[in-house]
Amino acid sequence: MQLKYFLLVLALFSFFPCVSAQAKDSGKRLIETDSLKKNIGKRIYQIKRLEGSAPDIDGKPDDACWQNNNWQGNFTQREPRDGALPSQETTFNILYDQTNIYVAMRCYDDEPHKIDRQTSRRDNFAGDIAGVAFDSYFDHRTAFEFDLTAAGAKIDAMPLNGGTSWDMDWDPVWTGKTALEDSAWTLEMRIPFNQLRFGQKDVHTWGLHVWRYINRLNEESDWQYIPMDSPGMVHLYGELHGLKGIKNPRRIELLPYTLGNLHTYRIVDATESQKELSFGLDGKIGITSDLTMDFTINPDFGQVEADPAVMNLSAYEVYYAEKRPFFIEGRNILNFPVNDDLLFYSRRIGQKPRFTPYLNSGEYMDMPDRTSILSAIKLSGKTKDGWSIGILHSITGKEEAYITSPMGDYTKTVEPLTNYFAGRFQKEYNDGSTIFGGMLNGVHRNLNSEDLKFLNRNAFNGGFDFRHRWNEKTYYFEAKGIFSHIAGDRKALLLTQTSPVHYFQRQDKFRLDSTLTSLSGHGGSIAAGKEGGGNWRFMADFRWRSAGLELNDLGYIRQADLLRQSSMLGYVVNKPVSIIRNYSAYLNESGDWDYCGNFLQSNIALRLNAQLLNNYGINYRLTRNSEALDTRLLRGGPAFRLPSWWENACTIYSNRAAKFVLELYGRLRKSNDGISKVYEYSPYLLWRLSTAFNLSTSFSYVGNKDAFQYVYGAYMDGSKAFMLGEINQKTLSMVLRLDYYITPELSIQYYANSFTSSGSYSSFKAINNRAGYRPIPEWSLKYYPEIGVYFATNDNGDAEYQIFKPDFTSRQFRSNLVLRWEYSAGSTFYLVWSQGRSAYLGEDNFSLSDLMQGHSDIYPDNIFLIKVNHWFSF
To answer: pTM for this structure?
Structure first.
């Protein structure tokens, strides 16, 4: 049975027993609340100045200051019934004084025993939630949101680009608590003005958004009605009037830390350990009312969760998400994406050293796992004239590897002292409907060592962007242009030209120039479309990357020498229809060419999404990829023609508000060559054992059979030969998370990722040109296990090819155990244990039991640390 039919049957069995039971209750509630509100205009809340004592922030709005007539309600449901009356009443009250803004909310519930009070970590949407957002710039584009779950966990976020995207990593310092009443849950917040951004005025008008979410009903209601089909949110906020005489103080915030670190690891058969006591400082200074300077000295990222394990058999670099606090906060200001590429990729700063010294017999090396960041400074803000400014400068230190040798110990420089610079600006017009911006970035390396001449000495990139939206911001047009220029030693430019981004050594494309000491390139994109309003969505895009475009010194680019057009047509319904809560259908297509006009491939995909009234859902994708001319497969060899393929992928998920949450993902790709296929099964389970204890686990099993997998280590007469083989690969990955929240401020979290991938090669093929290949008969191969090499002989019995056996088994285990205690606002204590185990074998192992076996036979690399930081504000 094909995967898609199996998943369809599973979906039917999963959905309909639950639909019949839950649709009755949901339908009854929907009928009762189906009076739609008509002609809801811009709402205004008149804030009052606090008189008397400030409220005690305990979650109970029973202080004298709250006993006024300034409570407002009359919310409107946004989902599932867009524009209907909400199922439950919500009211709020907002006050202010010279230094803070205070918020109280009362979230009524006629079934108070069903209030969902799941405890969770900060910025995790769990259970019932309520909160506010302020467009304090009043630019209709950027806002600052403060939410609380019913259990008291904080959520703070910055809606970006008018609310079409979100920065969930912004962590201001504020206070919030929740409590229970007989028929409601309540909250109180104290938000310092110095955590917001606004211009200097005598009288202020801010955008205001107040909202509530009821988890068991998957229902959102808002004070200011914002339709589900709106292209963004911030420009549709209500308004907060009456703020007078407040000032954005010249704030100074300091966050020093102390860290104790013990690192144990093994070199050969000896166990080694390193102890470290270090100090560092993060800070924030209000330069003006508009601009803030963030800085860090000797930052530490020891409590950051480990990157997921991968087995990369492609030519492309793996992209990892940023997880380090300093670079996460405010990253939206320096963000300049161009489709899938980035002008600024902060993981370049502090990355693993690039040079690995050659070791002689009997030598052992202690290599730093990352480059130390000596200092970093960010200047960011937004002026009253609509200018957004972001500037970052960072210095990373010279790193050395310590080598133990029978002839005496010595060191080798593995990473140079480096300066990084990134500068971004944007200017807004017409209340944010028109935006023009630019960016300029640079890297300079101090290359005093001959070993490091393979790195570019200087690298620059930059660009401009323009975006215009009209008709209530429903339609948009945008254009981006970028450039790059790198300079360095001939060795560095040769390495760049032969990298997977470029592959200038391809015989059928470019002429490799070994004398180059600089290289320039350009790229960009043009796009237009409809983002909201009604049921239809559409988009058309064209992008280009010249052959010499190189961003990877400070940005991220997968492939240069590319022209691509793409388009999308979508139909979205956000209102319930029968047993369906909402559904959508999208049709995407794209086509690729290179700069010589060669057609590379085309792709068309159909995506269908539906959610039922019981909050179960299904997502399905059908993809067709044409025959492709792959210019990267042979790692600098000629372009190779690959057969077309079909892919089916489906995800089924249960009610994500339930105690048990199950998600099933399956994928099947079949190639027209009759051999190549990929199949994947990935179940996910979340078990809420209590309101404070969550367990989640995911399991992924991927089978990959590819008739045209590149083979490294193939030679003919001592020269590199382009060789493909048929790979049979199996990959098993398991992730376990345990979250225990003693209080919203005190938590214990455990993350573990076990990864094993094994592959064997057969049916080797020697490449002639893009038109075809010559199979190497099995009878001509002779394997010599003592050196791990195949020799392929010709008809005369002479050795023609030498192929190093490419079979492999990679095993990795990564984990973090973190105790986190926010002992006062903005101040945190960490106790962390991180462990890593990894091994790589030159043999395949295909038994499932061996793939699932533990990693206890691999000696662990352990890091134990204690970290304390304390927040000071002046």
So the answer is: 0.84
